[in-house]
Amino acid sequence: MQTKTQNNIIIAGAILFLLGLLTGFAIPGFLNPRMGLASHLEAVMNGTFLIALGAVWTHIRLTPILDKTTFWLITYGTYANWLFTALAALFGTSNTTPIAGQGFSGQIWQEQLVTLGLISVGITLVLGCSLVVHGLLRNK
Question: What is the pTM of this model?
Fold first, then answer.
């Protein structure tokens, strides 16, 4: 039987995957098309990750509060990954993406926004995935 969290993760994954496909159409319009491609790929891969995570969610044993916390950490992290990568493509920032952003530079506030956003992505996804692993290990 599918849980509410499981269903919500699968829906969030399908929506993010769709956003990734739509972002692919916008690649030529980004200031930095290479980062636009990165944003497209982040959304498609993270959408697939969410769908796969939803498929195994019944094997993850977490308390109700950790279940909800994990859902929000993972959902925020995957969507923010797409969003801040898209903003990097739109603004042409490069501080946190020197390879894909080579030759580009955004305004200070744009660089700071993208940097803080991508830092938040790293933190939330590491925490969320750690909780997933914890929940999987509790299932043993």
Answer: 0.93
